[in-house]
Amino acid sequence: KVNLPFLTDLTHRECHRARNNQFFRKKVHYPLPIPYIKARGRQISLERRILLEQHKFSETNEEYYPMIERFTLFSDFFMFEAFSRSEEAVELVARIVTGKKDLKVARYGMEVKRGFPLFRHVRYDLFIEDTENNIYDIEIENEGRSLNERAIVYSSTLIAQRMKTNEKFESLKDTWVIFLTKKDMEKGYEPYYDYKWFDPKGQRLLSRKAAIRFVNGQYRNDDAFGKLMHDFHCTDPDQMYYDELREIVRYLKKDPEGVKIMCDIMNEAERRWKEQARREGLAEGRAEGRAKGRAEGRAEGRTEERENMMRKLHAKGMSFEEIASIMELPLSSIKAFFQKRSKTA
Hints:
Elements: H1 12-21, E1 23-24, H2 46-55, H3 59-62, H4 65-70, H5 76-83, H6 87-98, E2 105-114, E3 122-130, E4 135-141, H7 147-162, E5 175-181, E6 192-199, E7 204-216, H8 224-233, H9 243-253, H10 256-292, H11 294-315, H12 320-327, H13 331-344
Parallel strand pairs: 4-5, 5-7
Antiparallel strand pairs: 1-2, 2-3, 3-4, 6-7
Helix pairs in contact: 9-10, 10-11, 12-13
């Protein structure tokens, strides 16, 4: 049995799903995130080759090394693994992005789902509760799709679920929704942008209980925000400013045990993705085969698989060149696909 202390307001079925599928620090095993496929034909560093010899990693694991070297904390896949293993790193990020220097993390979870029956659920990348029962949702955002609408939905869900039956409205604690955006979405070169419930005519602030903040991932300066965003973009942990982040990133990228953990997770994720793709391809092939023939249906199923995978890799912040190398397709085909997608969007 495991204890999920801050899920007591969920139904029995939702608790059961959380117990099986979600990560809660030191209590529940984490789920596999969106899978990646191997980077084939890449050269690896001498340091990685020494690791290979010392720990006898398989050739399959060796092919993952170039991808591990390129991961940053803006990569959902890598961020999930790093923060799920370091409360110190979570507390550091929470203090900087909120400006609360004395913030203490009571509990936190990764990939936490919240919502109401019959309505759309939301999934919070990094869900934190501090010692004063305030709630924080920190999102890693690479694309910037529908940020304003998502921020409103996420904040509203957090607020609604904070109020229990017969609880007085005056007892509502603070809720924060914070997007760490890889690019400067507002083009103002500010460290962050705040949005509050505000009356522009009367110049009156309605409430301070619900905060929405977009942190500029392109901001660089010799302050806490500039150093934090520098570290989030770093591929080399030795170039990071903050010890809490440097320690966990170095463990997952350079420590033999951490590298093997990353390889094992990615290997299992790939296996699951292939199995899912196979089932979807078979189903697609059968459906199309009734109308146009089994062969044509399978071909279209494979094309759709490939396009879905390209979308997922691009959503994780990968460049067109990296996607072309991973998918083993011409760079011109990758660019043409996304140009066509942008015109039809």
